[in-house]
Amino acid sequence: MMDTRPPVIKSQQVTTHTARRSGAANLHLQGASLKTIAGLGGWKDVHSLQLYLRASGLDSARLARNLDFFK
């Protein structure tokens, strides 16, 4: 059966929350300082950003990327 629904525009599915979290995680992975990321993302302080990044599973992803299973 043919799908007759209109195409989904992916950029319309991204929330501001997702964009903020992804931006922070990607900046952190690329080596940007926490102070810079906090300033760009509007976090009040570096500590709250650190909690946010930890909640995103970024630490787990960083550890997992070095495991043979994921290579």
Q: Mind explaining what this structure looks like?
A:
The chain has 71 residues and is mainly alpha-helical. It has one domain. The chain is 55% helix and 0% strand. The chain is built from 4 helices and no strands. Helix 1 (16-29) runs antiparallel to helix 2.
Quick structural overview:
This protein is mainly α. The protein contains four helices and no strands.
* Number of DSSP E strands: 0
The major beta sheet can be summarized as:
none
Structural class call reads mainly alpha
What distance lies between the first and last C-alpha atoms, to the nearest angstrom? 38 Å
Percent range of helical residues: 40-55%
**Number of folding domains?**
1
Mean pLDDT: 84
Shape: flat
Task: Evaluate the radius of gyration.
Answer: 16 Å
Number of helices: 4
Strand content: under 5%
Order of helices and strands: HHHH
Unreliable segments of 5+ consecutive residues:
none
